[in-house]
Amino acid sequence: MMGFLWFWLVAVMIVGYVVLDGFDLGVGALHLILPKSERQRQAALRSIGPVWDGNEVWLLAGGGTLYFAFPLLYASAFSGFYLPLMIVLWLLVLRGISLELRNHVDVGVWTALLDGVFCFASALLTIFFGAALANVLRGVPLAADGYFFLPLWTTWTPGTYPGILDWYTVIGGLVALVALTMHGALWLTIKTSGELEERARAIVTPLWLGLVALTLVSLFATIAVRPAMLNNYANYPVTYIVPAGVVASLAAVWFFNSKGAAVKAFVASCLYLFFMLAGACWGVYPTLLPATTGAANDITLTRAISGPHTLAVGLVWWAFGMTLALGYIVFVYSRFKGKADAEGH
Amino acid sequence: MTAELIHRLHFAFTVTFHYLFPQLTMGLALLIVVLKTAALKTGGEQWDRAARFWGRIFAINFVFGVVTGIPMEFEFGTNWSKFAELSGGVIGQPLAMEGVFSFFLESAFLGLFLYGGKRLSKRMHWFSAVMVWLGSWISGFFIIVTDAWMQHPVGYNQLPNGQYEMVSFWQLLLNPWALLQYAHNMTGAVVTGSFVMAATGAFYLLDRKYEAFGKIFVKVGVIAGLISTILIIFPTGDLHGKYVARNQPAAIAAMEGLFKTETGAGVVLVGQPNEETGQIDNPIVVNDLLSFLIYGTTKAEVKGLDQIPHDQWPTALPLLYYAYHIMAGLGTYFIALMMAAAFLLWKQKIYTARWMQWLLLISFPLPYIANTAGWLTAELGRQPWLIYGLMRTSAGFSHTVSAGNGLFTLLGFMGLYLLLGILFTVLVYREISHGPLSDATAQAH
Questions:
Q1: Mean pLDDT along residues A127-140
Q2: Residue A269's closest CA among A182, A177, A190, A172?
Q3: Which of A97, A216, A345, B247 has the fewest Cβ atoms within 10 angstroms?
Q4: CATH number of the domain within which A65 lies
């Protein structure tokens, strides 16, 4: 019971991170393409300025929650994915610094450089996060002691000893890139006005078409790479509601965006991300990290879960702390409600 | 180079660089609250501008702290996986709590503080500053709780699979080591904040620019500096030292360079520890002082390294000894400087005493060195243990991550952080030369 609960609490943190930091990563990935002038670029940045740092906190809080609820999983996955995680850290550093520096530098050449770094790091981060999830779904070569180490690439083919990047995980990376870029564009339709808003609304269409195709490809690729993903769905057919939710939310993104209902389209995109992640989590449950070396080596919930007292106490402060946190978040977003570029800075 | 050494250097380098930023964040957060409170009480535009100026520097510093802080949480898993697996049930708790209780609070209200100037009432803006201060100090607390458990494990139980589980939440949070270390550490952060503020003020006075602000900064910096430099030695440093002496005798013996057990042990002011001969070369010693400081009597016996098995000696003994002596020496200088400065302030001579302004200006790097040396003392003193008495450092690193891969990312971090160091210096220098009257930066509105 505790295991079930904490599995989904960690999943909630991950969804929170993807939905929230997702849109500012998406705005970043669009930074060199969408805004056409310095004024528009500043408007795009102002739309995420007060919130991106708070959004990134979900990654830290989620990581911390994973650490104490499933220490073995945290230890195994973080050391096994050593190289890509370090690259993610470097990208997070570069992204945060370029965003901050841009507020202080007013020389054209430097601004252009920082815009490039910000865009490049944001786009690459979405690809890494997507590939990371795909690595978990595909499985890793766990040894009997629960540890592994993956090189960045080997033969680019999933198998017993794959690399971080193979054709399957690259698809995962692309899904995340397109999904979060669209998510960011939808955010811009809420927070900006005029030409930028129009351009953001227009770019959703090609992104949406690409995402539909990639979602389908990733679905079939996942079933091909890991047929067991369907077991939970077969055993509990009611949970087919999750993939149905993916389809419905995708359709809703199209519908609301074309009608110009920006907030509803953005919420639909949030739901799409939620259903995609929930669907993946439910597919692997109760395994946390599948082994390509045989199911006996899987890191399962019961194997990785922390001691009972830790978890019981954790539940109390977690519920209390996250309620407080949601309070601040709602407060901040309501204070910065409306168009970010309409306030005559 | 062995994998163990690489992983130690990896964590040590990234955490040492990281902590250059939070010490100013935490110290400055308090001083900004002081400035904002003065602005609210007096209605003075000067105080508010002063607070906004430091808010801009705070924002730069904060971002550098955040981006260098994220790797720290990751490195428990990436570089110290065996340790993470076994300790997660205990210290995963405060680390997760830091995210949930501190970072959400801090980031939300910092956004309001920096971007919300026009959208918030004066009182609400002040409240944001208070919340940012609270958030940063809560964050510090959870990190200290984590470190304190590694220094002095309490409230735990070992499960059959070897993992440590917390059995008492309050014992973990109210670990005496944590409370003492927290008091000492936070005072250290205020020392850094006040020295930086006083030095900036002194710079403006010496340069004869923004002199009205220079006076405010010197005044606030010196008063906060006097209070914090006294508190850092007495009672926080004194109590913390006594607690270390009772619980980590090997650490205190190595810190003091006490090779032989002595009744009426002295304090070595200067000298070089010689591990080969087991003595201090070129010593200048104050007799009996160490016994008195630890036990309150000059006759007490202090355990020397001779009573400790060699395989439990701190592994980097000379570095530990020097780190401690540098910290203590600088701490003594800080009190002397701040007492003199406070005296001149009281006599209303500090704004014309250029020699003192020069001293304040050139002293600003020293608290950074003292704080770093203090943390080196704490962490090297814990060696050869990762969790004191429970787990050796050699048992905790990620055995799947080879020395070559570890060195690759260590070099990467060194390069990246060199760049960050340069950028930070340039940004803060620009902000200081633009001065408190410029509201040029977009985010400061």
A1: 96
A2: A182
A3: A216
A4: 1.20.1630.10
Task: In whole angstroms, give the CA distance from residue B367 to residue A25.
Answer: 37
Q: Do B100 and A72 touch (CB under 8 A)?
A: no
Identify which of A68, A93, A329 has the shortest CB distance to residue B88: A68
- Which residues touch A118 (CB under 8 Å, ≥6 apart)? A28, A31, A95, A98, A99, A102
| pLDDT of res. B43 | 84
- How distant is the Cα of A224 from the closest Cα of chain B, in angstroms? 29
Mean pLDDT, all residues of chain A? 93
Q: Residue by residue, what is the 3-state secondary structure of A199-255?
A: HHHHHHHHHHHHHHHHHHHHHHHHHHHCHHHHHHHHHCHHHHHHHHHHHHHHHHHHH
Write down the pLDDT at residue B398.
Answer: 96
Residue A221 CA, distance from chain mean position: 19
Residue A336 forms part of a structural domain: no
pLDDT tens column, A166-203: 999 999 999 999 999 999 999 999 999 999 999 999 99
Q: Contact B400/A79 with Cβ under 8 angstroms? A: yes
In chain A, how many domains are there? 1
Q: Would you call B416 and A56 a contact, using CB atoms and an 8 Å cutoff?
A: no
Minimal C-alpha gap between A195 and chain B (Å): 22
Q: Which domain holds residue A43?
A: 2-291
Interchain CB distance below 8 Å, A310 and B90: yes
Contact at CB, B169 and A335, closer than 8 angstroms? no
Q: Could you tell me the residue ranges of all domains in chain B?
A: 3-248+317-444
Kind plus residue range of the DSSP H or E element containing B285: strand B279-286
Partner A contacted by B438 (CB < 8 A): no
Does the pLDDT value for residue A342 go beyond 80?
A: no
The reported pLDDT for the residue numbered B442 is 41
Which B-chain residues 118-147 have CB contacts (< 8 A) with chain A?
A: 118-120
Does A265 reside within a domain?
yes
**pLDDT score, position B112:** 87
Contacts of A86 in chain B (CB under 8 A): 78, 409, 412
User: Tens digit of pLDDT for each residue in A233-270?
Assistant: 999 999 999 999 999 999 999 999 999 999 999 999 99
C-alpha A344/C-alpha A322 separation (Å) is 34
- Residue B439: its pLDDT value, please? 65
Indicate if the pLDDT at residue A344 is higher than 70. no
- pLDDT per residue over A225-239, tens digit each? 999 999 999 999 999
The answer, for B114 touching chain A at a CB cutoff of 8 Å, is: yes
Q: What is the mean pLDDT of residues A203-227?
A: 96
Regions in chain B scoring below 70 on pLDDT: 439-445
Distance CA A93, CA A123 (A): 14
Nearest to B378 by CA among B30, B19, B122, B71: B19
Query: How far apart, in whole angstroms, are the C-alpha atoms of residue B298 and residue B289?
Result: 7
Domain-located, residue A310 = no
